Amino acid sequence: MKLFTNKIGYLTIALALTVSSCSKDFLNAVPELDLSDATVFNSPARVLSQINGIYGSAKSGSLFGGRYLIYNDIRAEEFVNRTTNSVTGYSTYQGNQDPSDTYLAGFWIQGYLTINRANLFLEGLAANPNAVSSALAANYRGEAKFIRALTYFSLVQFFAKPYILDKGASAGLPLRLKGETSSANNNLARSTVAQVYDQILKDLNEAETELPDSYASALLNTTRAHKNSAIALKTRVLLAKGDYAGVITEANKIVSSTAPYKSNARVAHTLQADVSSVFKAPYTSTESIFSFPMDATNAPGTQNQLGYYFNAGNVEYYLNTGSTGIYSNPQFAATDDRKTKLTVATTSIAKFPSSTKFSGVSPYIDFVPSIRYAEVLLNLAEAEAEGGNINRAIDILNAVHKRSDPSYVFTGLDSKANVVKAILTERRIEFLAEGFRANDILRRGESINSFGAGAVIPSSDPRYIYGIPLVETQTNPGIGN
């Protein structure tokens, strides 16, 4: 069998392109497409190189290294386009969810390429039980399942109706759990959204069991999945399901019962005193649960990287200062460090505020944050509020907000609805330019207030979710609509 030959024809080209981009993480004694199972798994070093390859595929600029985060932000109300550049998501910004869009197709392809890498790796590892020690094999299985779960979750957010609309009964994704090396299994129907979520949580539960407590360095604890990574991602997935009790159960594994909120279990996690330090080298603070590393020779590509889109050095998209944008919200006060340290008021390019969380265009060396401890805390706060534990929800909300703006005093937190609203507003502030906005809207079944479309897009509107790309519908007769 050829390792990493893809499930359908369009992935073969994509794979050939991504192999070279991940070369730094591989032992390329022979071309990857020519490696047999026996060759790939004939030494611990080669097995490790395949795990690195899964991470390398996931951090592509077409996936978690860029476009996944970017598209989630620009399709809502926080950003204003400056350039009308079709390469940098202008169609998405305008609310045009066209199945023929090349860049959405690239996201789909890269997602399934990453899933297929994980599937092939898991099968190859099972077929070569003596390749590494049993403990290391479990570690690697957990990492592959973690990345597979993260990828499926991201795809189902983009291309399927939110779970909350019908408890996951609508069409989800083709659920591919076996490695594909030819086009023989192209014909695969979409599983339901609920079935996709079930598989994601199955992978994460198994990953939590198999992954190590920690690694030997802060760098590895940030860039490779460990038990707390799986737990943290579960809080995100369960929140998207509306399973608030589940969120609380998982979050309590890594959040102390009282302030200061932190985790001393396995890898230590806590909020940084200075929020801006999270986005500075070495990018390995205790707040960073999982990030994708970048460096000057292994970057996501100029028109994929976050700094190219949002940073003052280029400014494809600047911040919306109007009434619908979070920048002008009273909860995002002028005294807030997230405004004074992570945005800039004007630049020579755009006479409007821009996000400075990510550095300029070149060289792009910022790590891409995927899971932060602040997210776990706000996931927990929202779940506690929805479950009726208003006091704890407010305490956690204050912990996140006051690390950036100690003088701010919340008012009107006298009902569940008001507390939930404040938490959702806090998420808009805390995760600005980190790829959360659209998913936070959709997972609650709310309308998208699209600045680019100049319209409010309800859940009944075809533009609410992305259409399955033509590259899939034209090669998979079982996909349906």
UniProtKB/TrEMBL annotation:
Domain called RagB/SusD: residue spans: 320-443
Record-level GO cellular component terms: cell outer membrane
Domain (SusD-like N-terminal): residue spans on this chain: 25-239
UniProt keyword terms in alphabetical order: Cell outer membrane, Membrane, Signal
InterPro entries linked: SusD-like_N, SusD_RagB_dom, TPR-like_helical_dom_sf
Subcellular location(s) per record: Cell outer membrane
Family the entry assigns: Belongs to the SusD family.
The name this protein goes by in its record: Uncharacterized protein
Organism: Aquirufa nivalisilvae
